[in-house]
Amino acid sequence: MKRVIIIGATSGIGRALAALYAVEGWTVGLCGRRTSLLEELRDTLGPSVRVQPMDVADTEAARQRFLDLAAALGGVDHVIISAGTGYLDPAFPWEKERDTLMTNVAGFAVIAHAAFDLFRRQGFGHLAGISSVAAVRGGPAPVYNASKAFVSSYLQGLRCRAVSEGLPITVTDILPGFVDTAMAKGDGLFWVAPREKAARQIFNALEKRKPVVYVTRRWRMVALLLRLLPEPLYRALVCKKRENGAEAHGR
After folding, report:
1. What is the domain count for the chain?
2. What angle do CA 55, 59, 64 make, to 5 degrees?
3. How far apart are CA 15 and CA 82, in angstroms?
4. H or E segment at 28?
5. Within a domain: residue 157?
6. Which element (helix H / strand E) includes 13?
7. Is 244 within a domain?
């Protein structure tokens, strides 16, 4: 039986993936900060589910708890890192920037590194991280876009290491646009995908071992357009003044 660990499983895309993998017959390890929600998921999804409370921002403890869960499962085939945060605050406080960095950068990296190291030792594995189309360029939520750029770049680096070392490890960068989660905030959102649809597209892409996945697929066109836009036009479209002070970013 195949085994998957999902980091950040208590809400959003992570929760939808947890339900899908359980239905598909996988043994599922779930991690998240909210113990009560993890236990609720375990009770709902059945005996194939193990849970491990974890705050990825507490990096050393998170790494050990991840390894403990992997050992309890007897190894792991897939690791999906869905933990992430973002905020909307016109006051732009440093404390929230710092907290986002600790979760989206340090927290992501410690689990990605631990998973890659585990895969090297067991001789196989598939690591997937949920980045964002926001990774393509900077935007009005500076730390969010920059943190997602880090996620995509780090995953590409791990993929490069796997190739250079001749390791049978697959690494997938998942870039959602707007998905119906708490992370999709602000006015004027478009192409908002249901969580279940996003989870199914991610599941299917991982089965095909794709290196880069846009969710939904049409967001690949948006990412290409964002990369090609001249800087003045990009600023006019993305960085224009928002009267209500709201910012929006996908995930």
Report:
1. 1
2. 85
3. 9
4. strand 27-32
5. yes
6. helix 12-23
7. no
Select from 50, 15, 8 the least CA-distant residue to 31.
8
| Domain residue limits at 144 | 3-238
Terminal C-alpha separation, the chain = 30
**In this structure, are residues 107 and 54 in contact, taking their beta carbons and an 8 Å threshold?**
no
Query: How crowded is the C-beta side of 60, counted as CA atoms within 13 Å?
Result: 0
Q: What is the DSSP letter of 102?
A: I
Residues 119, 77: contact at Cβ < 8 Å? no
Q: 43 is written with which tokens? A: 């009770």
Give the Cα separation of 19 and 11 in Å (integer): 11
Run means of pLDDT, 10 residues per run, the chain, 251 residues? 96 95 97 95 94 97 98 97 90 95 98 98 97 94 96 98 97 94 60 91 97 94 94 89 45 42
Is 97 part of any domain?
yes
Pair 119, 125: CB distance under 8 Å: yes
**If DSSP codes are grouped into helix, strand and coil, which group holds residue 114?**
helix
- For residue 165 the two structure tokens come to 């070392």
Tokens of 226: 């964002």
Residue 249 maps to a domain:
no
The radius of gyration of the chain from alpha carbons, rounded to an integer in Å, stands at 18
Nearest to 83 by CA among 64, 58, 120, 60: 58
Q: Enumerate the H helices of 83-177 as residue ranges.
A: 94-101, 108-122, 142-164
Q: Find the CATH number of the domain harbouring 55.
A: 3.40.50.720
Question: Tokens 């969710």, residue?
Answer: 215
CA distance linking residue 144 with residue 153, whole number of Å: 14
User: What is the pTM assigned to this prediction?
Assistant: 0.92
